[in-house]
Every structure is written in structure tokens, then in C-alpha cells.
Amino acid sequence: MTTLSIVIPARNEAGNIVALVDEIVAALNGLAPFEILVVDDGSTDATVAVLTQRAETLPQLRLIRHDISGGQSAAVHTGVLAARSDIILTLDGDGQNPPGELPKLAAPLLADRTGRIGLVAGQRVGRQDTWSKKMASRLANRLRGWLLRDGTRDTGCGLKGFRRDAFLALPYFDHMHRYLPALFVRDGWQIVHVDVTHRARGAGRSNYSNLQRAIVGVPDLLGVVWLSRRRKRARPMDRDGSA
């Protein structure tokens, strides 16, 4: 039985992805049964080749491919749809999210007896990025926090854990991965925040620039504000009268 599904969106990460997969195995061995789903988002390098070779000796590894790049949210969504577990853990394919932090994300969800925790959101401490990238992220997070009031200081962190059914019930749109805390709050789920470490990219380069994030960020943010204000407020009640 698969207890945890690890979903990794990856594009042109041939220099990072196998080492990342091996770190995940080391971090989760003995914790719970798991599978690793790498969603290749239209890579043009050797990402598919190195993963195919590694999968021959690692039965937990599954490779899913997009014929063209659909973006990070599309890759995560594809991976969640294919996952066999009710609990999903995500991290970026560039190696900047240390796999050793995954047990922190899994613990609240595995221990939850209320069924009310929908999302465990990692928040980076000691971020290892360029000054311009950190400043752009800080400004974006402050604006998002002010408008969405989701209680999250770092929505861009790739380290997240969530219930599969809750995620698939969210409204899907491109770039939704940046707004998961607000979307889970909108649907009435509890959120747990955990501090996680961060490290520099090992190989390759980022698939996004600050300008690209800014161009898509403004309409996305306004759309999430609209969705949050028009959430469904009525909830069905159990037979004993409790919500």
C-alpha cells in the first residue's frame, strides 16, 4: 500500500534530478511506503533519459511526460491525478528544496485524526537565491498576504504536503501552485506551516525570471482574490448536527 506520493515537476533538470530522487529515497526509507512521480514538463535535455535509466533499478520511481511544456502547476496537477496515495508531498526538481525536509511535511498529515488539515506549507528560512530574486519574492509575498490574508509568508516554496482529494477539488488554473494556501483556506481547510531550509541550485538555470513572474502574477492574484470572496459558505451537516 502506498502511503505517500512525492510529486516533482521538472523541466531540463538532467543535472539535478537523479541525485534529488536518491535523496528522497534516503529521507523516506523507514517512514512510510512511498512512490516518487517525476513529471517531465517537455524537457529538451537528457532529463527523460537519466530518469528512465534510474527507474530500471528503483521500482518506486514513476516517470510521466508532457509532450510540451505546460508549466509548474500543470505538471503538479498531472502528478497528483496519477498518484496512488491520499497524501501528496511536492518539491521542486532543481534540488533547492532539501528532501530531508519531507518528513516535516508528512508528519501533520499522517497524524491528523480530525481530517481537517488540508495543507502543510513549507516556508523557507535562509533562502539561497540571488538578491534580486529574494527581494522580488518578498515584495510579492507581502502583496499577496495583504490581499489574501492566508497567513503564509512564503507561498512560493515548492515544499508542500496536502490531501489529494482536497487539492483536486480546488479550482484549477495556470500558476495556481503559488496560491495553494489561499485556495485551501477558501475551501475551509486548516493549514499547518513549517519552516524548511533552502539551498543553492546545483546545475542548470531557473526556468523563470522575475519579469515573467510579475507579468503573470498580477492577474492571477486578482483572480484568486475574486475566487476567495465568492467561496461557498454553506456546508452540509452530519446527522448529529455537527458541521
Describe what you observe in this structure.
By secondary structure, this protein is α/β, with parallel strands linked by helices. It has one domain (4-229): Spore Coat Polysaccharide Biosynthesis Protein SpsA, Chain A. Helix content is 38%, strand content 18%. It has a seven-stranded mixed beta sheet with strand order 3-2-1-4-6-5-7, sandwiched between helices. Helix 5 (131-148) runs parallel beside helix 8 and helix 7 runs parallel beside helix 8 (210-229). The longest helix has 20 residues, at 210-229. The chain is globular. The model has no long low-confidence stretch (mean pLDDT 85).
Per CATH, the class reads: Alpha Beta
Number of helices: 8
CATH superfamily (homologous) name:
Spore Coat Polysaccharide Biosynthesis Protein SpsA, Chain A
Overall residue-averaged pLDDT value = 85
The separation of the N and C termini measures: 31 Å
The tally of structural domains comes to 1
Give the H and E element order: EHEHEHEHEHEHHEH
Q: Report the count of strand segments.
A: 7
CATH topology: Spore Coat Polysaccharide Biosynthesis Protein SpsA, Chain A
Query: Which residue ranges are poorly predicted, with pLDDT under 50 across at least 5 consecutive positions?
Result: none
> From the helix content, strand content and strand pairing, which structural class follows?
alpha/beta
> Beta-strand level of the residues, as a percent range?
15-25%
Give the strand order of the largest sheet, numbering strands 1, 2, ... along the chain: 3-2-1-4-6-5-7
Work out the radius of gyration.
18 Å
- Which CATH architecture would you pick? Alpha-Beta Complex
What does the main sheet amount to? 7 strands, mixed
- Which overall shape is indicated by the principal axes computed on the Cα atoms? globular
